[in-house]
Design a protein that fits this description.
Strands 1-7-6-5-4-2-3 form a 7-stranded mixed beta sheet, with helices on both faces. A 5-stranded mixed beta sheet has the order 8-9-12-11-10, with helices on one face. It is globular, with a radius of gyration of 21 Å. It has 386 residues and is of the alpha/beta class. 39% of the residues lie in helices and 15% in strands. The structure holds pyridoxal-5'-phosphate (PLP).
Length: 386
C-alpha cells in the first residue's frame, strides 16, 4: 500500500481500500472464490494460491481493505472476533502473563480466564485501566502482552491508548487493542502506537447483522507472518462468502458511522433530560469522565450508549417497538440490551457491582433509523416503565 493511499480520506478508503477491482476481469467487486484447492501450473512450481486454509483471494481482498482502513500493512481475517482474539493469544508461550482491563467483553473474559489459563497455561491480571499506575504495577517478568478494549462494554469507559502504547514499548510488551466499538472510522490504534488491532467484524464493519467474523491488523511484517502461520495451523479462517459480506459492509462504513453517531448523540442528550433516566454513559457528553480523552484519541464518539433506568426494566424492554431487544451491536437496526441478564449474566451480582454494572443498566446500539422514531420509541418505553 502506498503512503498516498494511507492519506486518502477515510470514506474513499472504505470504498477503494486494498484495490478491490479484479485484475482479470475489471469487476469492481472481487469474485467470491469458493475453491478449496488450486491447480499447479507446472509440477513442483511454487505458486501464491494452493489451498484456501492458507490463502484465499476473496479473504485477502477483505484483509487488504481493513488493513488500509486501520493504517496497517497486514490484515488477517478470522471466522469470528473470538477466533481473532484467540489468534493473538497463540503468539504467546505457555506461562506468559497478560494484563487486561476488568472491563472486558464477556467472551474475551471467558476465553482468557476459563479457557487459555487452563489449556495454554497463560496467566492474566485484570486491572482498572483508567489507572495507568495500576497497569504498570501489574506488569511482571513474564508479562508479554497488554490487551485493551476501548470504549469499554457496556459502560463506555475510555482508556488512554497512546499512554498504554508508550508503557508497552518501554517494557518490551505487545499492545493489542480490541477496536470493535470505535471502528477505524473513529479510532486508529496503530497510529497511536499499538502493535495489533482486533475487530469483531460481526459488528460495525459488517454492519448488517448478517455475518460473524473477525480480523487482526498489524504493521510489523514478522509478527503478521507469525499470526498468519498460526491461523493456517489452527484453521480459524472465515469462508469466502463471509469475507465478501464483510467487504460489502465496509463500503458504507463511513456513511453509516456518521448516522450512528448523530443518532446516538441526540439520544444521549435527550435521555439525560428525562425523569426516568438517572445516568447516561456516552463519551460524547461533556460530563463523561473521559470526555477530554475521547476528543483527543477518537475522531468521534460512536453509536453505543448506556443508561441507568429509574423504572421497571421488563416493562421498558417490552414496550420497545423500533429498538429490538437482543444481543450484539453495530448493525443498521437499533438494539437494546440488559447487561445484567444478557451480556454479563455469567457474572454474579457482586462481580457486576464491582464493575459498576447495575441491575437498572440498559445498553443501546443506536442504529441508522430516523432519530425521531428512535426517540419516540424510547419515550413510549420510559412512560411504560415509570
Ligand atoms: C462481539 C465482540 C467480540 C467477539 O466477536 P464475535 O464476532 O462475536 O466472535 C469481541 N469484542 C467485542 C468488543 C465485541 O463486541
Amino acid at each position: 500500500m502506498s503512503e498516498t493511499s494511507k492519506q486518502t480520506a477515510f470514506a474513499t478508503r472504505c470504498i477503494h481500500g486494498g484495490d478491490p477491482v479484479d485484475p482479470a476481469t475489471g469487476a469492481v467487486m472481487p469474485p467470491i472464490v469458493t475453491a478449496s484447492t488450486y491447480r499447479q501450473r507446472a509440477f513442483g512450481e511454487r505458486q501464491d494460491y494452493y489451498y484456501s486454509r492458507t490463502r484465499n483471494p476473496t479473504r485477502e481482498a477483505l484483509e487488504r481493505c481493513v488493513a488500509e482502513l486501520e493504517s496497517g500493512n497486514h490484515g488477517i481475517a478470522y471466522a469470528s472476533g473470538m477466533a481473532a482474539t484467540a489468534g493473538v493469544l497463540e503468539l504467546l508461550d505457555s506461562g506468559s502473563h497478560v494484563v487486561a482491563p476488568r472491563d472486558l467483553y464477556g467472551g474475551s473474559l471467558r476465553l482468557f480466564r476459563e479457557l487459555r489459563s487452563r489449556s495454554a497455561g497463560l496467566r492474566f491480571s485484570f486491572v482498572d485501566f483508567t489507572d495507568l499506575d495500576a497497569v504498570a504495577a501489574a506488569i511482571g517478568p513474564r508479562t508479554r502482552l497488554i490487551w485493551v478494549e476501548t470504549p469499554s462494554n457496556p459502560l463506555l469507559k475510555l482508556f488512554d491508548l497512546a499512554a498504554l502504547a508508550s508503557l508497552a514499548q518501554q517494557r518490551g510488551l505487545l499492545l493489542a487493542v480490541d477496536n470493535t466499538f470505535a471502528t477505524p472510522c473513529l479510532q486508529r490504534p496503530l497510529e497511536l502506537g499499538a502493535d495489533i488491532v482486533m475487530h469483531s467484524t460481526t459488528k460495525y464493519l459488517g454492519g448488517h447483522s448478517d455475518v460473524i467474523g473477525g480480523i487482526n491488523v498489524l504493521r510489523d511484517a514478522e509478527l503478521a507472518r507469525r499470526l498468519h502461520s498460526l491461523r493456517t495451523t489452527v484453521g480459524s479462517v472465515p469462508g469466502p462468502f463471509d469475507a465478501y459480506l464483510v467487504l460489502r459492509g465496509v463500503k458504507t462504513l463511513a456513511l453509516r458511522m456518521e448516522r450512528h453517531e448523530a443518532n446516538a448523540r441526540e439520544l444521549a442528550e435527550w435521555l439525560g433530560r428525562q425523569a426516568g433516566v438517572s445516568r447516561v454513559y456516552y463519551p460524547g457528553l461533556t460530563n463523561h469522565p473521559q470526555h477530554a480523552l475521547a476528543r483527543r484519541q477518537m475522531q468521534g464518539f460512536g453509536g453505543m450508549l448506556a443508561f441507568d433506568l429509574d423504572g421497571d426494566v421488563a416493562r421498558f424492554m417490552n414496550a420497545l417497538r423500533v429498538f429490538t431487544v437482543g444481543e450484539s451491536l453495530g448493525g443498521v437496526e437499533s438494539l437494546a440490551g440488559h447487561p445484567a441478564t444478557m451480556s454479563h449474566s455469567n457474572l454474579n451480582a457482586a462481580q457486576r457491582a464491582e464493575l459498576g454494572i447495575g441491575e437498572q443498566l440498559i445498553r443501546l446500539s443506536v442504529g441508522i433509523e430516523a432519530a425521531a422514531d428512535l426517540r419516540a420509541d424510547l419515550a413510549t418505553a420510559l412512560a411504560a416503565a415509570a
